[in-house]
Amino acid sequence: MKDISLSIASPSAAKPLQKIGATLTACAILCSIIAAYGAGKTHPLLFFFLITALFISAGILYSIPYFKARAGIKNDGIMQNSLSNRGAIAWGIAILMTGFYIILYWFPYFLEGLIRTMDPLSMMLRDKAADQWFLYGTFYTLAVLIMGMRFIAKYKFSRYHVIRTISVMFFQLGFAFLLPAFLLKLNQPEFYFSYFWPLKYSYLFPNDIDYLISSGNLGVFMVFWGLVMTFIATPVLTYNFGKRWYCSWVCGCGALAETLGDPYRQNSDKTLKAWKIERWMVHSVLVFIVLTTTLLWLNSWKSGTILGDASGLFSQWYGFLIGSVFSGVIGTGFYPIMGSRVWCRFGCPMAAILGLFQRFKSKFRITTNGGQCISCGNCSTYCEMGIDVRAYAQKGENIIRASCVGCGVCSSVCPRGVLKLENLEEEGRFIPYIRHEDKK
Amino acid sequence: MKIVIVGNGITGITCARNIRKLDSNASINVISGETEHFFSRTALMYIYMGHMKFEHTKPYEDWFWNKNRINLIRAYVKTLNAKNKILLLENGESIAYDKLILATGSKPNKFGWPGEDLVGVQGLYSIQDLEQMEANTKNISSAVIVGGGLIGIEMAEMLHSRKINVTMLVREDLYWSNILPREEAQLIGKHVAGHGIDLRFKTELKEIVSNNQGRVAGVLTHSGEKVECQFVGLTAGVKPNIGFLDNNELETDKGILINEYFETSIPDIYAAGDCAQFRIPKQGEPAIEQLWYTGKMQAETLAKTICGDRSVYNRGIWFNSAKFYDLEYQTYGQLPPETNPEQKSFYWEHPNGRHAFRANYSSTDESIQGFNFIGIRFRQIIAEEWIRERKTIDFVIQNLKKGWFDPEFSKAFYMDISYSYLNR
């Protein structure tokens, strides 16, 4: 018998590399804890390089099997793996990440040593000592870059995924990390050109606008940019391309979900009940932020005489409940348990607005190819937004849902090539496929 | 009206759903011994490979059946008493019907090979087969698959995902060459071999040999070769699952005999899907259709007949699809393995062996008759429209872009195809 053991060696070769990768990740976390405990203050550079080098090499090792493997769907064993199937490892990571967010938001002094390791980088980029947000931004960007590399390797057969992932990595690194730091260095306001109201809700609050305008020409441009992006670019781009132009190509929250969150995408809830909860929650948040913004402007217009501190309190509560608890602690901390898009799906007011456009006024749809669906369920399983894609595809209907971020994974995992993301004529996008023989 | 459907696969369930859509009063009852709820049989392989769990393969949530008043009965049918319109179940209960729909599906073929009933030898069709396969392949290192068809390749991929060495015995000289033209068969064969599957062409199973515990230890081929293994997958096609109709007055051949309305030899009894056999098949169409798509289309037509709108089955322009490891395959219209005398054929293949295109057209008026796409996604409505409207091959090649369904940013192979066509 011909010995074929060599030719099938590559899949099993993945195991040791990934074990080493996991070990290095654990070492990086351990180093972070040691640094936070105090060692970071005395040896900032050493720990900075140690931590980043460990994370990066772990990511590379983790991605190598994907780069080496033949191009194709790589979902073997996902449902049996403790990491991806809500096993002990998943819960461990969820607790670790949630804990990190709680400490970051409310007890940053525990991270003092770790923050100090970021001082050299922070001084270089911003001429300013690091704080907890710079630490967070650095880790966040690292996660997007490292896991983005893994994502590209895993989905290398699809140019759509490769280009889209390079895009989110670029916007995270350039627009959400380097550019704001550089602005600080130039004594300009720290402004994020890739975030807009209502996701970055304060950009349309009177206080922020007053501050930006008073800070000079660049500040005025920032206000202008924010207004244009919110009121002109958002509807126009969403009409032409769907909400994906933002959610899976530009947005930083989306960037983390698509990269760090990818191993958990299958854990989103696909039930009708979850969809009902989603619609109530995400639109409530939108109403909440619109009300808050309106109140602040009313108050500012009446010089604080009508509402007094109430509107300020309103915006503080929004910041705490939605900005911190929801988007961070639950949105990211619960990745391994509830999937990668909890925040985007249930909480993001930007997603809510984009979704309304996408559902009612857009050329975007996921086209179902005639009667070719075999109802296997891969599309629904791997939808990070919890859309029951199959429910549409098996009826020959196009998928037009407010929540769809256009990541394109449903189309990739479909074993019969039934789904295609595309921008066509707006007219007729809801018309289902009917067999020629059944047409009256 | 009390309707009883035997079988909760795609045919039985599509029938039930469509009857409910047409008639809100009918009593709809679905009997199945296999599972409580409908699941997608095509997804069995993904459960084994860990892409999905069983619950992911259920196309409807569990509340769906109650809400639509579709009564699910978990039981196997023992016998049919057509005279009294009663089904006797294996659990001893009986159920009466006004109209009976038989959609009992298939079971794997066995051809009386010596050793075919040994432990570790099995086919793959039902969820029970999958459970058995899970048990049979625990901690084994090599397997043999008999039959080079669609389920065979799926089984190979499944086993391979668990690092089990796979040898496939294929009777023909190329993979699936009773369906595919040679070039496509070769391309797929190469791709599959490239994944590490040991394909043995022109090789037939003679005997399955056991170890001293009654478990499979290997196979012997007709050429006298011995292949050691701990598992044998029998994937040489399927046959109608109609054992419970033995010695019944209902007329059967290989399957339950039906006319174009799915009516059997007994009034008020209908059959559809894998288990049914057309008494007089239409020209160029098989007597038994064993596909997901045909099961679904048959059921949609039958539901109309059941609800009073007696309708003839018309499956329309032929189409099918599959996936061989990483290669997606779509076919439309008439694409026989050997071009028939009135046909000409144009074939294009990418040098990387992952994309291919074939168009068959009439040698008299150059009208398009069929397509094969490998590693290329194409719009069904366009392909069918062109075939139906007898567009010329020139028109088709010039307009390929219109039907292109590959993801955005993909390489536009329709350019390569038209160059190749112009320079042929």
**Overall geometry of chain A:** globular
**What is the average of the pLDDT values of chain B?**
96
From the N-terminal CA to the C-terminal CA of chain B, the straight-line distance is 62 Å
Number of strands of chain A: 2
Segments of chain B where pLDDT lies below 50 for 5+ residues?
A: none
Described by strand count, sense and barrel closure, the largest sheet of chain B is: 5 strands, parallel
Number of E-type strands of chain B? 25
Q: How many structural domains does the protein architecture of chain B include?
A: 3
Low-confidence stretches of chain A: 1-13
**Strand-residue proportion of chain A:** under 5%
Strand arrangement within the widest β-sheet of chain B reads 3-2-1-7-19
Largest sheet of chain A: 2 strands, antiparallel
Mean pLDDT of chain A: 91
Name the shape of chain B in a single word.
globular
Oligomer state equals: heterodimer
CATH secondary-structure class of the largest domain in chain B: Alpha Beta
Distance between the termini of chain A: 60 Å
Structural class of chain B: alpha/beta
- CATH architectural category of the largest domain in chain B: 3-Layer(bba) Sandwich
Query: Over all CA atoms, what is the radius of gyration of chain B?
Result: 23 Å
Range of strand content of chain B: 25-35%
Fold and architecture overview:
The complex is a heterodimer of chains A (440) and B (424). By secondary structure, chain A is mainly α. Helix content of chain A is 62%, strand content 2%. Chain A has a two-stranded antiparallel sheet. Chain B is an alpha/beta fold and 424 residues long. Chain B has three domains: 2-107 and 239-306, FAD/NAD(P)-binding domain (3-Layer(bba) Sandwich); 121-235, 3-Layer(bba) Sandwich (FAD/NAD(P)-binding domain), CATH 3.50.50.60; 319-422, Enolase-like, domain 1, CATH 3.30.390.30. Chain B has helices spanning 10-22, 44-49, 63-67, 127-136, 150-161, 182-194, 292-306, 380-388, 393-398, 400-403, 413-422, and strands at 2-6, 27-32, 70-74, 77-81, 86-89, 94-96, 99-102, 106-108, 121-122, 142-146, 165-169, 198-200, 205-210, 216-221, 226-228, 231-234, 238-240, 256-258, 269-271, 276-278, 319-324, 327-333, 343-349, 356-362, 368-374. In chain B, β4 and β5 (86-89) form a beta hairpin. In chain B, α1 packs parallel to α7 (292-306). Chain B is globular. Chain B starts with a strand and ends with a helix. The mean pLDDT of chain B is 96.
